Amino acid sequence: MYPFIRLAWQFFLHRKASPLGVGETHESLHYCLPWDLDLWMELNNGRALTLYDMGRLPLAKRAGLMDVLRRRNWGLTIAGSSVRYRKRIRMFDCIKMQSHAVCVDQRFMYLEQSMWVRGICAGHALYRTAVTDENGIVSTDRVLAELATGVILPEMPDWIAAWSAAEDLRPWPPMQPLV
Questions:
Q1: What's the number of domains the chain is made of?
Q2: Which of 14, 23, 45, 126 is the most exposed, having the fewest neighbouring CB atoms within 10 Å of its CB?
Q3: Per residue in 36-94, pLDDT tens?
């Protein structure tokens, strides 16, 4: 089950945090709890993705995006992700998470998140996200205009552009194996 209480706790903790501009970093603390573990007594990879939600959604709130979504009756979706796991996260480890928007293209916003344990980067995620309405994906120009920040994110870094290009080459739907 999705940890709605844990998410509500993150919103509660950051309720008085100052607003963030587009591209600024949201920092949050999380703990690896017993129900986050896999058979090897470390943070389960699926739960790591859920914990990244706990940083991404308060980031959207602090940047004003949640208000825009509510006002316009828009949704928010993940259109792709790439995750690196580099250090084991054990039970009761304190995780410092950093979350921020890196860049946009015409359709997607690219968000970067990292998990740090005792000053060492344990994991890193890149997300391709989109705002949606009843017609599909809302252009990022329109989303940024609704945020009314006037901030323009930097050009897409080469490593994100290469990942995005590789994603565009990936066949969809995937081929089904012959049985």
A1: 1
A2: 45
A3: 999 999 999 999 999 999 999 999 999 999 999 999 999 999 999 999 999 999 999 99
